[in-house]
Amino acid sequence: MNLILLGAPGAGKGTQGKNLSERYRIPQISTGDILRANVRSKTPLGLKAREFMDKGALVPDDIVVGMVSDRIREEDAGGGFILDGFPRNLNQAEVLEATLARMDKKIDRVIGMEVERKELVRRLSGRRVCRKCGASYHVIFSPPMNIGMCDKCGSEIYQRDDDKQETIEARLAVYEKETLPLVEYYAKKDLYAAVDGIGTVDQITKNIVGAIEGRSNT
Ligand code: AP5
Ligand code: MG
Fold first, then answer.
1. Omega before 87 cis (within 30°)?
2. From the CB of 123, is ligand 1 less than 6 Å away?
3. Which of 6, 102, 123, 136 has the largest CB neighbor count within 10 A?
4. 148-205 pLDDT, tens per residue?
């Protein structure tokens, strides 16, 4: 099963992708996470990507598309994958479709996580992430048991560079302009299912599973 999680910054793609990955035993492929790993290790790709990420802009398509094409060819993605944060514009969606077609594969479902803007800003501005295992926290909604320390692995938790107020606004504007047209693109292909992204994490996972499995039974 090849899934796309579509949604604005802060909609919960990372959070839900993790649950779905465990449930279906297929990898979550987050372009944001791969890019941040490159930024951290100061690879040439990371140095280039950082300029764009710090502004809240999209990293150029050629970089991201190449990264995803390589990743979906890895062995663990053979039985399916969950794309989190990709595609993010029409060109990326078209290239993905062509790449999958060459591999005799296709996208089976696109889940659109719908969350109102005010809530997105609230989630992003309070988000904290573990430097080591990537676990996500929120200073108010889901704080760690010990301030500044990950519950799961004990490492330091930090605020992402792009979770500052002005960068959040830029990312949301880019989402509306570049990524939102993908809703119509996938709806026309009868692949799109909207899921309410407000509620508890577990309830939202249930709604997503319903949208995936309801469809696969038809
Ligand atoms: P990326 O890392 O993909 O960031 P994003 O799309 O902005 O999304 P986020 O990771 O911020 O949010 P999320 O939906 O994963 O939410 P999360 O689960 O963490 O991209 C970063 C940058 O990389 C881009 O700006 C761009 O520069 C570049 N990039 C990446 N992909 C690219 C591409 N394809 N092309 C070009 N450039 C690309 O949740 C958010 C917060 O809310 C957390 O604190 C969480 O604990 C909390 N939360 C989650 N669920 C709930 C809930 N149900 N109730 C309350 N709080 C919740
Ligand atoms: Mg994310």
1. yes
2. yes
3. 6
4. 999 999 999 999 999 999 999 999 999 999 999 999 999 999 999 999 999 999 999 9
Which CATH number fits the domain that encloses residue 33? Answer: 3.40.50.300
Which protein residue's CA is at the shortest distance from atom 43 of ligand 1? 127
Kindly state whether residue 29 falls inside one of the protein's structural domains: yes
pLDDT at 218: 39
Contact criterion met (CB below 8 Å) for 93 and 185: yes
For the CA atoms of 22, 159, 57, 177, the dihedral, rounded to the nearest 10 degrees, stands at 70
Residue 13: nearest ligand to its CA? 1
Q: Which range of residues forms the domain containing residue 29?
A: 2-116+177-213
Residue among 88, 109, 123, 128 flagged as catalytic: 88
Q: Find out whether 188 and 97 touch, Cβ atoms under 8 Å.
A: no
